[in-house]
Design goal:
Layout lengths: L7 E3 L2 E3 L2 E5 L5 E9 L3 E6 L10 E7 L6 E13 L4 E7 L3 H14 L1
Antiparallel strand pairs: 1-2, 3-4, 3-6, 4-5, 5-8, 6-7, 7-8
């Protein structure tokens, strides 16, 4: 997955993305996408999440507040606490219908 600060990456185009991640207990972690691709995403969270590696989560992405969102499911691949932020990698495990919505969302970014 390409890396970049607070951006959705599709080829060479990048835009800011807001991320909401919901765990199985309906707790929501909010963050900023570092990279979103058709395979998964990297996100920075300002607070430790209630999920951990291997957990299944629901994800909602938006270009900016008030803009249309896309919703998917993912598996947490990595969640590492750093200096004041938690860096997470998620891999999409969404069904084909959700993947098509993601592809359309990413296309709007380009």
């Amino acid at each position: 997955m390409p890396a970049g600060s607070g951006a959705v990456s599709r080829r060479s185009h990048a835009v800011a993305a807001i991320v909401w991640i919901e765990d199985r207990a309906s707790r929501i972690s909010r963050g900023q996408a570092a990279a979103v691709t058709s395979e998964g995403m990297r996100v920075s969270l300002p607070e430790p999440p209630s999920f951990e590696r291997g957990d299944e989560v629901a994800v909602r992405l938006a270009f900016e507040r008030g803009s249309p969102t896309v919703a998917l499911t993912a598996r947490v691949e990595q969640a590492d606490a750093g200096a004041g932020v938690v860096e997470c990698s998620l891999v999409w495990n969404a069904p084909e219908s959700e993947r098509k919505q993601l592809d359309a969302w990413l296309t709007r970014a380009s």
